[in-house]
Structure formats: structure tokens, C-alpha cells
Known about the structure:
Elements: H1 4-28, E1 34-36, E2 58-62, H2 72-78, E3 86-87, E4 90-91, E5 94-97, E6 107-117, E7 120-121, E8 134-140, E9 147-151, E10 154-156, E11 167-175, E12 187-193, E13 199-203, E14 242-250, H3 255-264, H4 276-305, H5 308-328
Antiparallel strand pairs: 1-2, 2-14, 3-4, 5-6, 5-14, 6-10, 6-13, 7-9, 8-9, 11-12
Amino acid sequence: MKAWPLLKELILATSVIFLLLFAMYSATGNSPPVVVVESDSMMHNPDGQLGAIDAGDLILVHAPDSRKIITYAEALEFSSHSNLHESHGLPGDVIVYDKNGEDKTPIIHRAILYARGNLTETPDRINNTCVNGSYDKFRIDISDTQLGTCIITWDVAGTNVRNATKISWDFTQYYCDLSNNGAHAQYLKIIDWVPDQEGFLTLGDNNNCNVDQGGTVTNNTTGGGLRDSSGNRVQPVSKEWVEGIAGAEIPWFGSVKLMTLGATSDSSPGTSYIPSKTWYSLTAAISILLILPIILEPIVNRFLEKSPEMISHSNESLRNINDEIGESE
């Protein structure tokens, strides 16, 4: 029976973990309900910042179909007649997606705009190629209703780009220093971009306008963007590749997992991007969580002792003791 108290504590701890996971799943509608941030691509401050996405944070991830994804462009447009939609420090939603749909470590970056096809034509069905435009394997052709179509012109919600063969737009409120890359502007510029397919243009907040889809988006005034595991440039993020929408932040606690990943996985950066102040904050948070029950227990016990139920129970117990003493005499 000596093992029972330890077993009881183990059962209680396991039950709490399952309840937390169930609560997070219920809140997000997604599985897994959280992701651990590994890199510094979304950081707003080298020392870390509450409200932004820092390496070592846990981020709740809502199901991609739980609501409409609002891009940076759309958020700025909506702000003229309603409250600005912000997520993690900037306008627009942050999404979690798989690079070119591959089943690897996902990317968590901001959705800048969504390129939607307007004018389309049926591709060569033998080779799935286009005489004009870009072949989109995810969109159904309006003529033969088969999967895959050639997109000739584009629309971009949140801008006045409509029925355009190329996408050009200046995000004058999205500041970055491009002076060393041949650009004369100090903000994000989309220049004569012809998307490979319908999808989101994405960007890390800390990536100096180096969009994930590479220099073809900015007329090579930014870097090469991201590559998948096969070395292919990341294409516009199809809705099929979106794993979820970034929600609330649980700061610091993902650092514990990154410590483990750094020791067991060559593909993980481990703790290399975690701000040094995170360790102080994590230590303080864990200390508070450990000390808090010790402080609260006597307060709760004192409060319970003064409750009418406990007083009634004590009086009843005292009467029973007195009765037993009287009978023994």
C-alpha cells in the first residue's frame, strides 16, 4: 500500500495532461493543437517580446477551416472602416504551412496576400502544360471541370490588382532595409510577379522583406526565399498546404522541447535561436508554478475551515466524540 500515494499522484498528473491536451484541441479544432517555434524568423526583438513569436514559444494552431484567413493586404484594407485585424504584432494572420506540401517541419509565417486566379484556360491534358499562364494543379478548370487549369490573370484581395497578368503592389507600411539589394525603397514591393499557382505569399516578420517565395516576387531585390527538402523554391502556399492559423502564444515553455530536439535531431537548430532572456523568464515561471501551490494551500485550508459546511462538520464530530465519552462513563 505504500506505493498507492505515488501511483495516485501519477494518475492525477497524467489526467491533468490529458485534460490540458483535450482543452487545447477543443479550443483549436486542430491536431496537434500546438507547435514549437524553432527559428528567429518571426521575432520583433532580439531579446524576445511577449505578443510576438519568438524561438522557444508554444503557439496554439487553429484549424485552417475554422475561419477565413485574413492577409496583411486585407487587414490594411479593412482597417479603413473597422478595427485593424492584428496577429502577433502586425496586421494580418500568421499561418502554419508545409513547404510545397512536404511532410517535414512546417513554417510559421505571416500571410501577406493571396493570389487568386481570374481568367483561365484549359491546359494540354496529355502533358498538363499551358500555352499561356501558370498551371495550377489544385484548381478545377471551368471548361472541362477536371482538376488542373491554366491561370492567365490574377486578382489580389486588399489591393486594386484585378485581372492582371503580373502582380505589382507597394506595401508602404511594411518597412525593411533593402538598400544593399539594389532597391531604392524602404518597404516591401511586389514587382511583376507571376505566381506559379493560386496561394498565399508569405513572409517572416524578421526576414527583412525576403519573402518565402523568393526573388521572383520582388524582381530579385530580395533574397532567394525558402527551399523545400528537395531544393525547390517554395511556391505560393496553396490552401491544401495550410496546417492552421496561429493563435495564442504560450511563451518560453517550448524551449524545453528544443533542448531535447537539439540533442536528438540533426535537422533541428535546437536552442541556438532562443533569446538569452527566455531562460530567465522560463526559470522564473517554473519557480512560480512550483511555489504557488505551497503558498495557496494554507490560505485555501483556512478559508475552508471557516466555511459553514466545515463548521457544521466539526460541531457534529465534536458531539459524536462527547456522546462516545458519555457512553463509556
